[in-house]
């Protein structure tokens, strides 16, 4: 084969590999989205239930613009203690919604965490859209999962926004869809973060990816979660330990997917309360 023929062959080979990897990512995204659709097929968000939880101190909240992606403004829900301006730098948390979107439940959780003394920015991956049923959520999730670079950029800009607001440290947390993106962020932008909490999000068992994590992690999972199988969670935990990462993985017996969502039909109050206590204790240790 002559020199020009070799170049053509190599370019064709690299294109084939690139397409294969892209196709593999696409299949993984579709599989994950289908798994979540299956888990939530009989579930609906019930905002009225979420309103029962009040923060432990006065907080203020508002929609803010925290960045941009192309021509799109990134807007999220910012909640912080009422006296935040009078304080020294306070710890902050990027919060990522479930597959339903930035709905009343997530705004409530942002205010609830702000009531513990944190500045919380609940990001929006759906550009203002909120799903009211599983079919709508499946479409929104599929679109968001298809562009990993845009998602990481979204979270990076959110972390930068909080850092520039005078935060002493920046954590990240999310549920379901948001749990998967919390892990993605821990891998991709550890240099911008100080800790992460994953609530029943898709795990990653690629050691090259996990090796990039430089922040402590807390994982909250349900033993009966058919969408995030417990065997995979245990493998994920074992790999993190082998790599010497700071990770605490808790698997709640008899808990299904979304067991910590007070606005969903899978809610387990006792397990959810225990998970929340572990979350607060973890952030108290890792964020200052």
TrEMBL record:
Gene3D superfamilies reported for this sequence: alpha/beta hydrolase
SUPFAM superfamilies: alpha/beta-Hydrolases
GO molecular function term, any single one: hydrolase activity
Dienelactone hydrolase domain residues: 75-286
Short name of one Pfam family: DLH
PANTHER family for this protein: ALPHA_BETA-HYDROLASES SUPERFAMILY PROTEIN, CARBOXYMETHYLENEBUTENOLIDASE-RELATED
Protein origin, superkingdom: Bacteria
Protein's name according to its UniProt entry: Carboxymethylenebutenolidase
